[in-house]
Amino acid sequence: MERFIENLMYTSRWLLAPIYLGLSLGLLALMLKFFQEVFHILPSVFALAEADLILVLLSLIDMTLVGGLLVMVMLSGYENFVSTLNIDENREKLSWLGKMDSGSLKNKVAASIVAISSIHLLRVFMDARNTPDNKLMWYVIIHLTFVLSAFLMGYLDKATRHEKK
C-alpha cells in the first residue's frame, strides 16, 4: 500500500505538465497584446509627444519582461518538477536550462518582479501629473515591498545554502 501511494504521488507530478503548457498560451496572449500595441502606436508615432512614446515603449518593455518570466517559469518549473527536457544535441539550448533549481528559480522570479515593478513605477512617475499623490505613495510602498521581499529571499537562500556546506 505504501509503495502504491508513493508511486501515485510521484506520478502526480505530471498534473503540472498541462499547467506549464497553459503558460505557453499565456505567452501567446502576451505576444498578441504586444503586437496590438505596436500596430496601434505606429500610425501615430510622429504625432506623439516624446513622453507619450516613452510610456508606450516602457509598456512594451514591461510585456517583454513578463514574457521572459513566463518562459523561465515554464521551462525551469517543468524541468524541476515534472521531467528533464530532452533537447537534441544539434538544437540550440538555453544556457541556464538544467542549472536552475527551485531556489534559484524563486530568486529569479523575485528579481523579475522587482524589474517589472520598476518599469511600472517609472511609467507612473513619467505620468505623475495625472496620478494623485496618495496613489504615487502606494506605488512606491508596493515597489519597496517587492524589493525588500526579493532581498530577504536572496539573503535567506544564501544563508541556508551556506549552512548546508
Shape: globular
Mind summarizing the main beta sheet?
none
User: How many domains make up the 3D coordinates?
Assistant: 1
**What string gives the helices and strands in order?**
HHHHH
Strand content: under 5%
Annotation field: number of helices: 5
Task: Return the structural class.
Answer: mainly alpha
Distance between the termini: 37 Å
Mean pLDDT figure: 88
Total strands: 0
Radius of gyration: 20 Å
Uncertain runs are none
**Range of helix content:** over 70%
What would you say this structure looks like, in words?
The chain is mainly α. The model has no long low-confidence stretch (mean pLDDT 88). Helices cover 76% and strands 0% of the residues. The protein has helices spanning 2-11, 16-41, 50-81, 102-126, 133-164. The protein has five helices and no strands. It has one domain. It comes from Symbiopectobacterium purcellii.
Short summary of the structure?
76% of the residues lie in helices and 0% in strands. With 165 residues, the protein is mainly α.
Helix-strand blueprint:
Elements: H1 2-11, H2 16-41, H3 50-81, H4 102-126, H5 133-164
Helix pairs in contact: 2-3, 3-4, 4-5
List the keywords.
single chain, 165 residues, 76% helix
